[in-house]
Amino acid sequence: MSLIQLPKGSGAGLRRLKASAFLALALGLALAALVGELLVTYGGLTSVVLWQALAVYLGVAAAVRLGLPAHLPRTDFGPANLVTLLRAVLVCLLAGLVGQVQASSLGWLPAAIALAALALDGLDGWLARRRDCASVFGARFDQETDGLFVLVLALLVWLDGQAGAWVLASGLWHYAFHLTLWLRPRWRRPLPPSWRRKTVFVLQAVLLIAALSPPLVGWAGTAAAALGLALVSASFLVDAAWLIRRNRKEENAQ
Could you give the residue ranges of the DSSP H alpha helices within 121-218? Predict the structure, then answer.
């Protein structure tokens, strides 16, 4: 039984939404395969990079499929989600590099892909507001794409030798925070809007991308990764402290 309560009469709408999402996901798969093949052919990479990227993409597609009911009552995938899907494709291509090749041996290629993914961030939200197609699904899709993006960047920085395993905390904070909310249902409540979170995400991504860039090889790359970890850690701790205070206030009021 689905945990999501669907509105009455949503069966036909959900079928149309699934068809729209299937087409979008198929196009995303084709794009990932095409760009991945180009990277293998002209970038001197092995085919393992391509297959690894496609495997990660299929995982993303499965998660999208499971979360689709939260996009109702809208019955089309929508332009905002298409932009998020394009970002996800780029993240999957980066994930294809993880464990297969040192990022520093590829020059500016990893940083260029990551910068393209980062440049698209914000466009999906703007489109959702502009085209009036925002949804719970779209917000979560964007959030989880951000989380995967940072984790992949942290993995690349670590495996490239630019930082120790501690840099993985940059990407794991997102998952640890949501695991905590899952384990503590009373803490599950919307956080107040904050430009801090978005600013910290962008700064953290920029610093990790900088650590992958040729000019910051060595101690400078390590320093950039450490600064990014410090910023995101402080941001998550601020949100955790807010949730704890709010929960205590509600308990005292009862």
Answer: 123-130, 136-159, 169-183, 195-212
Domain residue spans of the chain: 11-249
Q: Which CATH number fits domain 11-249: 1.20.120, 3.30.420, 3.40.50, 1.10.3470?
A: 1.20.120
* pLDDT band with cut points at 50, 70 and 90 for residue 3: very low
Q: Token pair for residue 159?
A: 């495996």
Q: What is the DSSP letter of 75?
A: -
Q: Are 16 and 75 in contact (CB under 8 A)?
A: yes
Q: Are 142 and 84 in contact (CB under 8 A)?
A: yes
The SS3 call for residue 133 is coil
Q: Exposed/middle/buried for 84, CB within 10 Å: 0-12, 13-18, 19+?
A: buried
Q: Rounded CA gap, 162 and 120, in Å?
A: 26
Q: pLDDT of 10-68, one tens digit each? A: 678 888 999 999 999 999 999 999 999 998 888 778 888 999 999 999 999 999 999 99
146-169 average pLDDT score: 93
Distance CA 132, CA 144 (A): 21
**If you count them, how many residues does the chain have?**
254
| Cα 238 versus chain centre, distance | 21
What mean pLDDT do residues 134-140 have? 88
DSSP state for residue 189 in the 8-state scheme: S
- Under DSSP, the state recorded for 201 is H
